[in-house]
Amino acid sequence: GFVDEAVGIKNGSVEVTDDDGVATRVRLNSNDALFRELRDLNFGRACDALKEKTSSMQREYETIKGGKVQDQTVGEIGGFVKKLGEKQGLELHSNLAKRCLETTRGGGPPDGGGGGASADDNSAFMRGLEVERMCVEGGDLDKILEHLAARLSAGDDARRTTRLLALASLTHGGIPGAKLERVRVDMLRAYGSRVLPVLGAMEQCGWLAAREDKSLYARAFPAIRKPLSLVVDDVDDHDPSDVAYAFSHSGYAPASCRLIHHALTGSLRLIDDVLRALPGPHFEYTQGFDASDGSPAVVAVDARLFQRRRERAVGLSAAGGGIPPRRGP
């Protein structure tokens, strides 16, 4: 996700420029052994892993170079030669990490040449992360909307600005009507009439709402932010113990992950108030286990009971919804 945001992934591939200015488009998938190892790491930890691999290869090279060939076993030399075959992939991912660092730290050339991001782009990227952090923390909405207006004036991509608008609405209980109307006008000026269906769809699904409407979707996040510990201030990138590690630029733990954790630990009933704050119906069904034969086995799903609870939750009639026959898991 970060590589896509910072560099851009198209059709599963990314364009990487080496130190000589040569651009290469490569595919990113698990067929690449190094990418398979790095893809789920926090970005900072991935950079450390690349440094460790590079240093390890350098040390082995110095060992081979400093010793006598006759003193080296065939296995030692063959193993190092095999690692040299990985050098190309290591250089690729090192260049990719460098490109990402240029985006986050403002290291790109001012004119945007050489494949790097411009200073303005770097500043906008970091400011964008700060504003996202303000959103999830429930920070000053006026400052968030000021940043949004600045990005609209700068001609930023509509996908990014509408995403920020939705985030601001969902994390602040909606946007005051007068301010929301000004945002609509600004977006219409920036993108033309093509943005109107997008805003309409966002309102219809609850991603965008006026605060006066008291939308359940808009009120949900502020109500569950603290009870579910969605914002984590201290995250250890090297020895993570919290899912917020994956989102350490903002220290945010997705609500879905927190709910799954409570479900797996059997503590959903302890957060009943949180569940009631979430929009939409909900119900609980536990499948259970059967140890009658001496070994735990999953009990077959009682489809009728499951369906009845679901119908009560969503307000469907048993006659209209139909009850499926009892089936196994």
From TrEMBL:
<feature type="region of interest" description="Disordered">
    <location>
        <begin position="101"/>
        <end position="121"/>
    </location>
</feature>
<dbReference type="InterPro" id="IPR027482">
    <property type="entry name" value="Sec1-like_dom2"/>
</dbReference>
<protein>
    <submittedName>
        <fullName>Uncharacterized protein</fullName>
    </submittedName>
</protein>
<dbReference type="InterPro" id="IPR043127">
    <property type="entry name" value="Sec-1-like_dom3a"/>
</dbReference>
<dbReference type="Pfam" id="PF00995">
    <property type="entry name" value="Sec1"/>
</dbReference>
<dbReference type="InterPro" id="IPR043155">
    <property type="entry name" value="VPS33_dom3b"/>
</dbReference>
<feature type="compositionally biased region" description="Gly residues">
    <location>
        <begin position="105"/>
        <end position="117"/>
    </location>
</feature>
<dbReference type="InterPro" id="IPR001619">
    <property type="entry name" value="Sec1-like"/>
</dbReference>
<dbReference type="InterPro" id="IPR036045">
    <property type="entry name" value="Sec1-like_sf"/>
</dbReference>
<comment type="similarity">
    <text>Belongs to the STXBP/unc-18/SEC1 family.</text>
</comment>
<dbReference type="GO" id="GO:0016192">
    <property type="term" value="P:vesicle-mediated transport"/>
</dbReference>
